[in-house]
Amino acid sequence: MGECSQFDNNEVPFSQRPIVILGAGIIGSATARQLLLNGFPVVLVAEYLPGDQNIYYASAWAGAAWHAAGGITPDQRYLQAVTHRILLKMAQDGPEAGVSIVNAREYLEQKPAPDSAIWGKTVVSKFREMSPGEYPPDFNCAWAYETLVTDPTRHMPYLRKEVESLGGRFIRHRVEALQELYEMFPESRVFINASGWGSKTLTDVQDDKCFPERGQNVFLATDQCNTLYFRNGKEYTYVIPRPLSEGVVLGGVKQQGNLSPEVDMDIARDEIARAHRLAPEIVPEHPAADKVSHIIGIRPSRKGGFRLDSEQKDNRVVLSAYGFGGGGYAFSYGVADALVKMVETAERENVIL
Ligand SMILES: Cc1cc2nc3c(=O)[nH]c(=O)nc-3n(C[C@H](O)[C@H](O)[C@H](O)COP(=O)(O)OP(=O)(O)OC[C@H]3O[C@@H](n4cnc5c(N)ncnc54)[C@H](O)[C@@H]3O)c2cc1C
After folding, report:
1. How far apart (Å, rounded) are the C-alpha atoms in residues 104 and 119?
2. How many angstroms separate the CA atoms of 237 and 248, rounded?
C-alpha cells in the first residue's frame, strides 16, 4: 500500500454527502432551508411532513407568535433575535411566507425582573411603556410594540416549497433509531436530530427529560386581527392574531402528560372567558358558534430546556436540536443558523486532514 492509502478514491467527496435531518417540523425544515441557502445538500427524513395535521406534529398547531422568552441565557436570546431578523425579512417580502407584522400589547401582573422578557425591547420595533389609563388598572405595567406572527397553515407549506426548490429532498419514513439513518445514508457524516418529542423514544437517544405538553387553543374568525395581547404573569392567556387567516388564536393551556386528541369544552370556554377579559374589544363574551373552531397540539417540551449541541459518534457528527416546548417558532431560524455554523465546523474537521 502506498502512503496515500488513507485517501480512498472511491469515497464520495465530503461536499457531496447529504446532511441528513431527522424531523420536518419548523426546526428541521428551517434548518434545511438555511443549509441549502449555504450550498449544503440536504435530505429530511420524517414521519410527518409540512402540510400534515397530526397532533404529534407540533409545528402545524403553533400560535405562532414571536415573544421574547424570560429566564433564558444571552446565547438563547441571540437565537431569538436572529429568528426575528429572518422572519421580519420574510414579512417585508410579502404574504407568501405567512409571516405578518402586528401590534402587541403586553400586560404585566408584576414589575419585570431583570431576566424577564424586557430584553426583547432591543429586538422588536416601536417598543414603549404604556401609560396608566392605557391598560386595565389591575396590572402593574404594560408594554406596546410591534412583533411578528407566523401562520403555520401557510408557513409550513411555504417552507416545503422553498426547501424543494433549493434542491432539498423530503422522505416520509418513521425510524426507531438514529442508527437506521446511518444505514440509509452510509456516506453521510453529519446528522441532525430535530425530532421533537420523538427523541423520547428513539432507542439510541431515549432522552428522559423530554415530555409532552398538550396545548388546546380556540380559533375565532374575525376581521379584527392585527393586535396581539399577552398576559405576562401567573395567568397564561394570549390572543394571537392570524391576519392571513382572518382570525385570532385564543389560549392558553399547558397540560403535562395529557395526549388526548379530543376537544375539552371546559378548557375552550375558559380560554374564551380569559381572552374576553384581556381583549374585550376583539373577543366577545359569547362568540357565535360558527366563528369558533379548535386547535390541539402536543408541544415537545424538555426539562431544563432544549438541546442544541454537537457530538462525535465514531466517524459521524450528530447535532441535536429538540425540546423547544412552546417556543419552537420563536427560536426556529436562530437555531437553524446556529446549526449551519455547527455543520461548517464538522465539515472543516472532516476536510482539513
Ligand atoms: C397550541 C400550541 C401553540 C403554540 N404556540 C407557539 C407560539 O406562539 N410561538 C412559538 O414559538 N411556538 C409555539 N408553539 C410551539 C411550537 O409549535 C413547537 O415548539 C415547534 O413546532 C416544535 O417544532 P419541532 O420541529 O421541534 O417539532 P415537531 O413540529 O413536533 O416536528 C417533529 C418532527 O420529527 C419527526 N419525527 C419524530 N420522531 C420521529 C421518528 N421516530 N421517525 C421519523 N420522524 C420522526 C416528526 O414526524 C416531525 O416531522 C405552540 C405549540 C402548540 C401545540
Report:
1. 15
2. 13
Sign of CA dihedral 304, 203, 176, 187: positive
Q: Residues 6-20: pLDDT tens digits?
A: 444 457 887 789 999
Q: Is 50 close to ligand 1, i.e. is its CB under 6 Å away? A: no
Ligand 1: centre distance to CA 275 (Å) = 24
Q: Which burial class, exposed, middle or buried, applies to 301 when counting CB atoms under 10 A from its CB (0-12, 13-18, 19+)?
A: buried
Give the list of residues 6+ apart from residue 275 with CB closer than 8 angstroms, or none. Answer: 218, 220, 229, 237, 238, 239, 248, 250, 251, 283
Please report, as a single letter, which amino acid is at residue 114: P
At 254-303, the pLDDT tens digits run 999 899 999 999 999 999 999 999 999 999 999 999 999 999 999 999 99
Which pLDDT value is given to residue 5?
42
Q: Is 247 in the pocket of ligand 1 (CB under 6 A)?
A: no
The contacts of residue 19 (CB under 8 Å, 6+ apart) are 35, 40, 41, 42, 43, 188, 190, 191, 192, 343
Contacts for 158 with CB less than 8 Å, ≥ 6 apart: 96, 97, 98
The reply to whether ligand 1 has any atom less than 6 angstroms from the CB of 198 is yes
Is residue 32 within 8 Å of 50, Cβ to Cβ?
Answer: no
Instruction: Give the pLDDT confidence of 210-221 residue by residue, as tens digits.
Output: 999 999 999 999
pTM of the shown model: 0.96
326 annotated as ligand-binding: yes
**Rounded Cα distance, 178 and 201, in Å:** 11
> 326 CB less than 6 Å from ligand 1?
yes
CA dist., res. 33 & res. 164, Å (int): 9
